[in-house]
Amino acid sequence: MLPLGLIDILPPSTAFHLGPVSIDFYGIGYALALVLGVWIASRQAHLRRENPDHIGNGIIFVFVLGLIGARVYHLADQWNTLYAADPIRAILPPYTGLGIYGGIVGGLVGVIVYTRRHHLPFQRWADIAVPAVLVGQAIARWGNFFNQELYGPPTNLPWGIAIECSKRVVEYSCSIYPPGTGFQPLFFYESSLDLIGALAALWLSRRLAGRLRDGDLFSFWFIWYGAVRSVLELFRLGYDWTFFGVPTAILVGVAGMAFGAVTIWLRHRGGGRSTADIDRERVAEAAASAGTGPGPGPGERVPA
Question: What is the residue-averaged pLDDT of the chain?
């Protein structure tokens, strides 16, 4: 008998087929995250008096590097469990295994390369991207629901989710926990917290712009997501990639929190222009360009 309130849904991982090609919910989630993320980032760029065209121009490059980084991280994380006995699986489809930390590193490299190439202030554009990234993470995490991943220990809570026997880690096998057992939906917790983080970043950018420095929201992301992921990872089992018995994901999360806190401290220990000051400068530059003829657009810098 199912526990009271168990969400007894065993979703298929594949949404539909286009001939021999299967379209998975995981990929659809990433596509939706990309589309909505582009829209949010473009809006943020416009509000910050930067050229939103850079979002559309650079997103494919950044996204591809993000996917590569996410795949590499997943392979390192799950190599012994999934790929060591059959390495060819690492390069053959379907490519559903992705690691968020690797995706962030790959995407970050893409943003650095793009901003340097176009002479744009990296920290400012990283801040613009933060709300979009968090919303994208919140959407993409639902791919774990369809793949029946990112779940925690058994629970009798009303929102416990069912997990197929074939998708369970050894510690939660059906011989120990029979079909119908509910599990903590860690993917849902992370998705919800990512969305809260996005709202917090938007609130900070509006209400505290006079106190923020460019790069502070970027640091906030490291603190927020590092804390969220480190706490949720405590409830997972079946790790492969560990360091002295500690899951690498927790170590990376703690390191991210430290990085975010230190960079905020370094940014604020002396004087400097606030985000609001730079926003006003952008407005003045746009007005001057409109009055004196063609010049660099918002967010463009003339190379020295």
Answer: 86
Distance CA 247, CA 237 (A): 10
Average pLDDT over residues 117-145: 94
Rg of the chain over CA atoms, in angstroms? 22
Long-range contacts of 92-99 (CB under 8 A, 24+ apart): 94/22, 94/24, 95/71, 96/13, 96/24, 96/26, 96/27, 96/143, 96/147, 97/71, 98/67, 98/70, 98/71, 98/73, 98/74, 99/70, 99/71, 99/72, 99/73, 99/74
For 118, phi then psi, to 5°, come to -105, 15
Given a contact cutoff of 8 angstroms between Cβ atoms, the answer to whether 194 and 135 are in contact is: yes
| Within-domain flag for 243 | no
What's the pTM?
Answer: 0.85
pLDDT at 5: 58
8 A C-beta contact, residue 301 and residue 120: yes
Torsion of CA 224, 227, 232, 236, to 10 degrees: 130
What is the domain range of residue 171?
14-210
pLDDT digits (tens, 9 = 90+) for 14-42: 888 888 777 888 888 888 998 999 999 99
Q: What is the pLDDT of residues 222-244, one digit of tens each?
A: 999 999 999 999 998 866 677 88
Q: Which two tokens stand for residue 23?
A: 């379209």
How far is residue 238 from each of residues 144, 167, 206, 246, measured CA to CA in Å? Answer: 16, 12, 41, 12
Token duo for residue 98: 């992705």
Distance CA 253, CA 93 (A): 29
- Whether omega before 94 lies within 30 degrees of 0, making that bond cis, reads yes
* Torsion sign over Cα 170, 174, 175, 177: positive
Q: Return the pLDDT at 190.
A: 96
Is residue 181 in some structural domain? yes
Residue 6 is assigned to a structural domain of this protein: no
pLDDT value at 292 more than 60: no
In a domain, 66, yes or no: yes
User: What's the pLDDT at 226?
Assistant: 96
